[in-house]
């Protein structure tokens, strides 16, 4: 029986557009047009969870997955994605699938932030 796979949680994530910025790099907060548009936290969490589940169910039949838990939080600009997967016995790559699900969640949230910036 294959051991359940659990991807390590994403320790810290920042939207690609702001990654590496310092407080001094931020736009003038007195000018409303300079404040970056940020999607609501609920949309971020939903986007990440859907992307992670999409990766798992693209690889495995839903009926074959014994247990899947995708936990996503987004607070203070920090995205935390945790994927627990108990896949079929013949699935020796469950850990890889869980890792790819976390990466897909992060990429989907980056795309969400990029789209919000484009709408500005």
Question: In the CATH classification, which architecture applies?
Answer: 2-Layer Sandwich
Biggest sheet overview: 3 strands, antiparallel
Share in β-strands: 15-25%
The beta-strand count equals: 3
- Work out the helix count: 2
| Helix percentage | 25-40%
Multimerization state: single chain
CATH level 3 topology? GMP Synthetase, Chain A, domain 3
- Overall 3D form: elongated
Going across the major beta sheet, what is the strand order?
A: 1-3-2
Give the structure's gist in a few sentences.
With 120 residues, this protein is of the alpha+beta class. The chain is built from two helices and three strands.
Structural summary, described in words:
The protein has 120 residues and is α+β, with helices and mostly antiparallel strands. The chain has a single domain, classed as MTH677-like (GMP Synthetase, Chain A, domain 3, 2-Layer Sandwich). The chain has two helices and three strands, in the order E-H-E-E-H. A hairpin with a 2-residue loop joins strand 2 and strand 3. The N and C termini lie far apart (51 Å).
Characteristic terms for this protein:
single chain, 120 residues, alpha+beta, 2 helices, 3 strands, 38% helix, 17% strand
Topology:
Elements: E1 5-6, H1 41-59, E2 67-75, E3 78-86, H2 94-119
Antiparallel strand pairs: 1-3, 2-3
Helix pairs in contact: 1-2
